Amino acid sequence: MKLLHIDSSVLGHHSVSRQVSAAIVDRLKQATPSLQVVYRDLTQTPLAHLSGSHLAVAQGAPAPAELGPDLAASAAVLDEFLAAGIVVIGAPMYNFTIPSQLKAWIDRILVAGKTFKYGATGPEGLAGGKRVIVAISRGGHYGADTPYAAGEHLETYLRWVFGFIGITSVEFIPADGIQLGPEHREKAITGALQAATGLRAA
Ligand SMILES: Cc1cc2nc3c(=O)[nH]c(=O)nc-3n(C[C@H](O)[C@H](O)[C@H](O)COP(=O)(O)O)c2cc1C
């Protein structure tokens, strides 16, 4: 089985979500050594934002030559996603939601006819059967009992996106309160790393 590992934090070695996503992959790989891991770093190799030209090509217009490399990257990203049985994502909260690098990736995998379609009763997901595990790191706390709950557009957004394309197995491992001081940070990271080691095997 293939495991696609994606990181999107811009903070490199200081990143919490990268540390936790790596621990998730380590845990799954240890439990199932035959897993084939494919890694994509969305900050090292960013995807461009969608443009009018992309949409025109998707509607059947001839592809302009200058879009060639980008369309090839887009196809590679989609193929990688479709081939994976497990997808592990490192997703930090930036300004209440996912980083724009991760949004650019989502724009390349939500493709009508490939990962969803419009059926007689509305949209239908075509990418079911995958397991998605997301390491999320947030500076504050966004639980339902906090005043910030309405500002949470990271976990809720990703759950919706993957649900839209038919993926119901979405697990979140949160590291929260990262910006509330060193003790909070340490506790959050330790808890998330522990949760990673407790994940069920692939
Ligand atoms: C540009 C930027 C925007 C941020 N916006 C938020 C935010 O809206 N809410 C929040 O709780 N934390 C916010 N933070 C804090 C991060 O969520 C926190 O530091 C987290 O650990 C980032 O994940 P990373 O370490 O993997 O990059 C922000 C951090 C950065 C760098």
Can you describe this structure in just a few lines?
This protein has 202 residues and is of the alpha/beta class. It has helices spanning 16-31, 52-58, 68-83, 100-109, 155-164, 182-197, and strands spanning 2-7, 36-41, 86-92, 116-119, 122-125, 131-138, 169-176. Helix 1 (16-31) packs parallel to helix 6.
CATH T-level topology: Rossmann fold
The percent range for strand residues is 15-25%
Ions, cofactors and other ligands present here are: flavin mononucleotide
Low-confidence stretches: none
Provide mean pLDDT, rounded: 96
CATH domain class:
Alpha Beta
Care to count the β-strands?
7
Give the proportion of residues in helices.
25-40%
SSE arrangement, N to C: EHEHHEHEEEHEH
Strand order of the largest sheet: 2-1-3-6-7
Q: List the domain count as a whole number.
A: 1
- Helix run count: 6
Structural class: alpha/beta
Q: What is the first-to-last residue Cα distance? A: 9 Å
Keywords:
21% strand; alpha/beta; binds flavin mononucleotide; Rossmann fold; 202 residues; globular; two-stranded antiparallel ribbon; five-stranded parallel β-sheet
